[in-house]
Design goal:
The complex is a heterodimer of chains A (about 210) and B (about 290). Chain A contains six helices and eight strands, in the order βαβαββαβαβαββα. Chain A has about 210 residues and is of the alpha/beta class. Chain A has a single domain, classed as fumarase (Alpha-Beta Barrel). In chain A, α2 packs across α3 and α3 packs parallel to α4. The longest helix of chain A is centred in the last third of the chain and has 20 residues. The radius of gyration of chain A is 18 Å and the shape is globular. Chain B has about 290 residues and is α/β, with parallel strands linked by helices. Chain B has two domains: about 120 residues, no CATH class; about 120 residues, no CATH class. Helix content of chain B is about 40%, strand content about 25%. In chain B, the strands form four sheets. Chain B has a five-stranded mixed β-sheet, with helices on one face. Chain B has a four-stranded mixed β-sheet with strand order 8-11-9-10, with helices on both faces. Chain B is globular. The chains are: A alpha/beta (about 210), B alpha/beta (about 290). The interface between A and B is large, with 57 and 56 residues.
Chain lengths: ~210, ~290
């Protein structure tokens, strides 16, 4: 795919920048984001937000990805970055509205999308969600320059808060925009509407 | 001559290592086909990106996915096979050695189900199922690591004296529940009949069949074709972002049972990690996938 014509977004976005994007846009990412795949991590984040404490890394108004990061480390500091890849965001549905509002997040990323409660929080705050192609680690990892910083090193590597620097990361799809439009929701509604017809067609014998 | 502890340790570790860096040939062929047949432009681009990434992983030795999954093996043992040493332990030790030496490193995914504690070891790890083959002198080993994205949507439902229509509706309901969450285009394995555990095993084994193969029973082959078309009419598409390519194939198998009919459905994501080799009594290793 020729990616040279794609729009490049520099993270973190401002809420106004986030609102210029619409569901379905294909973009490349630059700048910085914090990534984790940890359930305990995000529960701890919610507890911190609810207690009114700041995160150990710069996350306010930032980009937060559901993505695993693997790297070498020396004395608890990241050295060489090995690879990244997204995880399923929907399993964190219950935690995300608090994090989106509490940290004023302007960009999220992962795969599988988020529920309506998160979509509403994103609309309020000015936040978009990127779909990363799962299983495309070999290409996506080329768009990560380095692991800048890590926090909560008591957790296993992919559960920590891993701050990464991106350069031409993607292409990624804006799958939920800041205006309440979610590709996932639209497709699920449409699939359910088609189901009676699909079941009807299924009963007909195969032509081949 | 016999199949030794050392050989099984080495081969099972190699199979896992290879599976992380290369998608099966029949998956690659399906991706190429789908890039040409997918009607939604955005989905075509996603499929092209998948294919390019798989090719990059293969030529550079990079991993396909950051989630290396948990090691899972299906081993079929010929009745003329002779074994030397503790073969079960060989698989455990092979995985332990791999974890210590593999580059790039893999992360901790083996999870204690009651505490959520993660490590590289655990009860029953690697997960292995053993079957008997007929009168042959080899062991047929398939490695298919299972990761969270695909693993969590597997489901089983037990119906009583269902009609074919009931069964197919049940399968589609499970497909709808998974939606586009499992990194489609997926392979869908369906096991029908037998008992609860047997149907689950049939479903898992059905996911391991290469694309392009048909069930020998024409009635089942016909179900496979109709259900494949039906799943692709849902429109979930690549990565659940819309399109006509949600599955590369529904693979079905069945067993006779009683009037209660378990229906098991499981999924493997598009990278469909799977490697396979035969080890002969002579010590010869034949790589199949």
């Amino acid at each position: 795919m020729n990616t040279s014509s794609l729009r490049r977004l520099h993270l973190p976005l401002t809420p106004d920048e986030a609102r210029t994007l619409k569901a379905g846009d294909l973009v490349l990412l630059e700048g910085e984001a914090v990534a984790t795949v940890g359930m305990p991590t995000q529960k701890r984040m919610v507890a911190e937000v609810e207690a009114g404490r700041e995160m150990p890394l710069p996350m306010r108004g930032g980009a937060f990805f559901h993505m695993g990061v693997c790297y070498d480390e020396e004395n608890g500091r990241p050295t060489r970055m090995h690879y990244v890849n997204p995880t399923t965001s929907s399993r964190f549905n219950a935690l995300m509205p608090t994090l989106i509002r509490g940290l004023g997040l302007t960009a999220l990323g992962g795969k599988g999308g988020l529920s309506r409660e998160s979509v509403e929080a994103m609309r309020e705050v000015g936040c978009i969600y990127f779909s990363f192609v799962g299983g495309a680690s070999a290409l996506l990892s080329q768009g990560v320059e380095k692991v800048v910083d890590v926090a909560w090193t008591d957790l296993i590597m992919q559960f920590r808060l891993n701050q990464i620097r991106l350069s031409g990361f993607g292409p990624v799809t804006v799958a939920i925009d800041a205006h309440g439009e979610s590709i996932y929701e639209r497709i699920m509604v449409s699939a359910q509407a088609r189901l009676p017809d699909i079941l009807e067609t299924l009963r007909r014998p195969s032509q081949s | 001559m016999a199949i030794t502890y050392d050989l099984v340790k080495e081969v099972t570790a190699d199979l896992y290592n290879w599976s992380l860096r290369r998608i099966p040939e029949s998956s690659k062929a399906k991706l190429r086909e789908a890039v040409a047949t997918e009607t939604v432009p955005h989905a075509r681009e996603t499929l092209a990106l998948m294919l390019a990434s798989a090719e990059t992983a293969e030529t550079t030795g990079r991993f396909l996915c950051s989630d290396a999954g948990v090691p899972s093996y299906t081993i079929k043992i010929g009745s003329r096979v002779r074994m030397e040493g503790d073969i079960r332990q060989a698989i455990v030790d092979g995985f332990e050695h791999l974890v210590e030496t593999i580059q790039p490193p893999i992360m901790r995914f083996v999870t204690h189900p009651l505490t959520n504690e993660r490590s590289f070891k655990g009860k029953d790890m690697p997960l292995v199922s053993y079957d008997l083959l007929g009168d042959v002198d080899y062991m047929d080993i398939t490695c298919a690591p299972k990761a969270l994205g695909g693993g969590r949507w597997a489901a089983i439902e037990t119906l009583v004296s269902p009609s074919l229509e009931d069964i197919e509706r049940c399968i589609l309901e499970m497909v709808m529940r998974a939606g586009g969450q499992h990194c489609p285009p997926v392979v869908i394995g369906v096991g029908i009949g037998g008992t609860f555990d047997h149907a689950a095993k049939l479903s898992k084994d059905a996911t391991l069949r290469p694309f392009g193969t048909r069930h020998p029973d024409p009635m089942v082959a016909d179900m496979e074709e109709r259900l494949t078309r039906a799943v692709n009419q849902t429109g979930f598409g690549p990565m659940g972002c819309g399109g006509t390519t949600t599955t590369f194939g529904v693979h079905i198998d069945y067993a006779s049972g009683h009037g209660f009919t378990p229906i098991a459905v499981s999924f493997n994501c598009w990278i469909n990690r799977r490697t396979r080799a035969k080890i002969y009594n002579s010590g010869v290793v034949e790589r199949i996938e």
